[in-house]
Amino acid sequence: TPSLLLTSAFIVILAPELTRIFLGSNFQSAVDYVIWGALAESTRMLVSTYSLVAHVHMRTRWLIFPNLVGAVLSVGLCVTLIPIYGAAGAGIGLLLSGLAVLIAMRFMLGERARGGVSVSAILTATAFAGGLLIIAEGVRHVLNSEEWRNIIGVVVLIGIIYLGLQYLFLRGHLKDKREA
Fold this sequence. Notes:
Layout: H1 2-13, H2 15-23, H3 31-56, H4 64-85, H5 87-109, H6 119-142, H7 148-179
Helix pairs in contact: 1-3, 1-6, 1-7, 2-7, 3-5, 4-5, 6-7
């Protein structure tokens, strides 16, 4: 979960540069869709992770209610929000329905849903994401230009920092594998 949080923040923070690199300047307005899509996908991945708890306990019926809530909310919110916000409304609707599914799963799975993720790890990932945002804004300010080399420079510098932060989260898992 902390690693996913940091990855989502990385994509959201670099959405302007990534959109410019992969889609070109003509589609720079797609930044909002990339952001909402990344956030909605994050909730979907968390839902998939939490659903593994039900599979491990051979109680997939625990997933019926949360997924029903998500399906109804997805359709309802998208039908409501797309006419108001356009395509971004779909991302907003999917994000909100995904959060509702996570909350419903938390209630359905109870303490089993904790999954060993500590609150301090989530707070650390949030702090790292905030630091990544501050550094990205600083790098953007220093490289204040629309030139390709500066855009790529922002992505490379923030990418290196992101990889270092991911290593900090995953090093315990990597060390366990090497010692086994």
